[in-house]
Design goal:
- The structure holds two protein chains of two kinds.
- By secondary structure, chain A is mostly helical.
- Helices cover about 75% and strands about 0% of the residues of chain A.
- Chain B is built from seven helices and no strands.
- By secondary structure, chain B is mainly α.
- The chains are: A mainly alpha, B mainly alpha.
- Chains A and B meet through helix 2, helix 3 and helix 4 of A and helix 1, helix 3 and helix 7 of B.
């Protein structure tokens, strides 16, 4: 058995606080871009920022960046499954 | 014959993540419904979305991001063997959860007071798109709120275990999994907030 101290990466308070600040800035940015008239870009912009925020939470708050390959691959499979689920629904809805 | 209690750290975490994937698909289903009906009723969704309180939505977003920071820091604190700080940070997360639910209560009561709730006379007589928007709003924020309550209860139980010494620097997978659940709650809100409050 490998020692525990090797397995667990400790993320510093400083780094976590930094991520939190970025998340706050991105939230403010989402509010700002949805208050002005961007037409179709509004939805795309808001969702892109939401995805970036989700990525930051998963990578740092949820430690995914420091996890083993198996968990990272499983996350990838889950996200791809969700994307297929959403994508194929839209093929059906938009081209029916 | 006595055995040391079996600990499978990676297994415990793998199990938690598999559960989180099913949660992702549950909310994914609600988001697909939202997207399909948004494509069908863009005007009604816009007028529904404009009736939601952006300021309260913003405050709740800040509260949840901060609660997530506390939960992540609690894991760091236990890894550094700082039990007092772990407990304080978990307390902070639970306090944020309570604040979130109070604001949710205020939001929902205002809506219900204006006659906007599933099956209300106003929605039944109104255009179908608006009633679908608010049904999805209550469904998504309701299931999300349920997760907030479950997560806060879970973290309170975990704080109790930290306090009595059954979660320690070398054995903290329960705390880590509890924090993961809490981050999922934050993750879902990161999508609910722009979808319902902002981009319509």
């Amino acid at each position: 058995m490998t020692t525990h101290s090797d397995e667990h990466h400790i993320i510093s308070y400083r780094k976590l606080t930094g991520i939190w600040l970025i998340l706050l800035v991105l939230t403010a940015l989402t509010v700002a871009i949805t208050r002005i008239d961007l037409g179709g870009f509004k939805v795309a912009g808001a969702l892109t920022i939401a995805c970036i925020k989700a990525g930051l939470v998963i990578a740092f708050f949820m430690h995914m960046k420091y996890e083993n390959r198996l968990l990272q691959i499983l996350l990838f499979v889950a996200v791809v499954t969700l994307a297929i689920f959403i994508g194929f629904t839209f093929f059906d809805v938009l081209y029916r | 014959m006595t055995h040391a209690p079996h600990k499978d750290y990676s297994g415990a975490k793998l199990g938690m993540w598999l559960f989180l994937f099913t949660e992702l698909l549950l909310f994914g289903g609600l988001f697909v419904l939202y997207a399909v009906y948004l494509a069908r009723y863009p005007q009604e969704f816009a007028s529904g979305g404009h009736q939601l309180n952006v300021v309260l939505g913003c405050i709740n977003t800040l509260i949840l991001l901060t609660s997530s920071l506390c939960a992540a820091m609690a894991v760091t604190a236990i890894q550094q063997d700082n039990r007092q700080l772990t407990l304080r940070l978990l307390g902070g997360t639970i306090l944020c959860a309570a604040g979130f639910m109070v604001i949710k209560y205020v939001e929902w009561s205002a809506k219900i007071h204006h006659g906007i709730y599933p099956g209300s006379a106003r929605l039944v007589e109104g255009p179908p798109g608006e009633s679908i928007f608010f049904s999805l709003y209550y469904m998504s924020t309701g299931i999300h709120g349920l997760h907030v309550l479950i997560g806060a209860t879970l973290l309170a139980w975990i704080a109790w275990k930290v306090r009595n010494g059954s979660i320690t620097r070398t054995d903290f997978v329960i705390l880590e999994n509890g924090a993961l659940y809490w981050h999922l709650v934050d993750l879902i809100w990161i999508f609910i907030f722009p979808l319902y409050y902002l981009m319509l």
